[in-house]
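Here is a tokenized protein:
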Amino acid sequence: MSKITTKASSRLGTLNLYNQSISVPTLVNFELTTDLTIGANNKGTGVIDKKGLVFNKTYKFLAKLAGSKNSIESTKIVWVIKYMSPSTSRNKFITLKAITVGPEFKLELKDKYKDIAGCEIEVSCYMEARPKKFHSNKYFVHNRFMYFDSSKVLNQVKQRMMYPWMIDQGASSLCGMACLYYILIQRDKYFYKKVAIELHRTGSYTFSNGYKIEPNSSMYDIKPTDSSYVKMKMDEADWIVLASTRSSESNLRYDGIETGSFDQLGAVNWMGMLTRMCKDVAGYSSAKSHDLGLVDVGKTIINKRNFSIDKLFEMDKKYKSGKKIIIMIQPKMIDDKKGDRDINSIHWVVYEGGLQFFDGDGHNVAIDSLHIGNVKFDIFTWGYNPKNSPRIISKQGISATNFSTNYYGHIEAK
């Protein structure tokens, strides 16, 4: 009797396995049913012809299963996304996993997945009941600034790491941001690279102190071929870094494109803001602002002494001691043009030493002399080499009067 029972049990077990294999569907393949979007091909050519996934869009994947409809709808599918992040994975794949009931999987690309930007992802799926049989496809996820060529941006960043004076605000009002990143590179050029590349790739950057750069979302849709961008006359890396940083600070929804006076107002770099950002962004331990106020102007009138020139001498001493000096001026000072103060026309430059004083006959004079007619010094501005640029203070220098008229104050950072 015992042998008969054993045989019956064995046959029953075989029958159950056979029935189960019929009821469980077979995974044939899967497909992405959502259209891909054209973006930069990232080969350094600037051509926009590469298909990929973009953020703020939902992508639907559909597993192809063979079997009865009822069994397909109740089948558990495991979806796996693998990618290698240039900033967080450290040469190891990062794996994201989701389980769906039924053949459809939705991937909603929101900010929580921003680390996927600029990466090739491998999407795989398999039935939970049969993990050894899976299918995989690879897709590219566009950088957050999807129309800006990553190879071009990287090359420009490397150039600025070697020659920070190449940062150029172009036709924008981002002179303060240009000065900010000019002194940031001088402090830590590799940190500048990290900020610039991550901004382009993920669209934002959070500093260790909690400060976050996150521009107006409309900037992500700008193309380098757009006429509004072309008019800015800025290289890709400069626009992404400078405009994104200023946009994050804007209460006027500055979107990186300046088409009128309101946009330019949104890009203005106020002294208090720039002073704070020397610490928050550029990473200097301290920063102080010094304004040339009405008191100094009054002293000049009463004592017949140019207190603006005294300020210049103080700035030079601070510079020689290792501090970074950012000066607020009117741009006409650079070409020694005459004119009254115009609060609507302010410009930030970085002081680079080389200070000289001249009398009316062009002879060098000391700072304590009352006969200073001209001054000469080096500055950084507009993407020109401070030591080799015809735009940076002419050979004749600038008149002491024009310097006083066009100087507003300065920031010192150390």
